[in-house]
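Q: Could you fold this chain for me?
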Amino acid sequence: MKKSCLLKLVIFIVLICGFIYFLLHLYDPEYETVEIKQNVGGKLICKFTLYSDIHDWQYNVEYEYKSSDDKLYKIGEGDYYAKEWDKNEQLIKIQDWYILKTGGFYDSEKIIFGKLNSSKWKEFEFDPELIEKDSLWRITKTKSLLNYCCAETKVLKIEDDLIRVSYKFRIDEKKVDLMGNKILIYKFDKLSGELTLQEIQ
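A: Sure. Below is the predicted structure, expressed as structure tokens.
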């Protein structure tokens, strides 16, 4: 009888300890490296960390590019807040520039760009505040509620030196789902690597 009680007590203690260990490590970061074959040749090496909790999750991705001749280039980082990372990002080549579309802060996207001989690649985030400060946006006198949740930018297409970006924004204080939408056309300067807003549709 005593052995039976002792065995039950040991099993109970092991289960409690296992449960406590599980709770303590439930939201530990997950680490993984993914290699994505690139249409421009070589591979994109993505070292990502997944942080998650009860309410939210976030991917932080560190990018390196391994060229066809096995040289390694550090590119930069992207973040995906509360949205999935599709693990199929492609570098786009414009003359001797390489451009990578990736995630930015919450509902925004950004590009990381540089030349292979660049010591540090640049980044440009299509941030709602930055968009609405632009003189071309102000000329349109578009009604938007910038301080209301939740504006969203998405890079739709990068073709030659033009980057098409979708911008969704709140236009009504009470109706959360009532959103305005504009297509922004940015021009990428192949000499300087500067981006300018050229057109709003």
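A (continued): The helical segments are 2-25, 128-133, 135-140.
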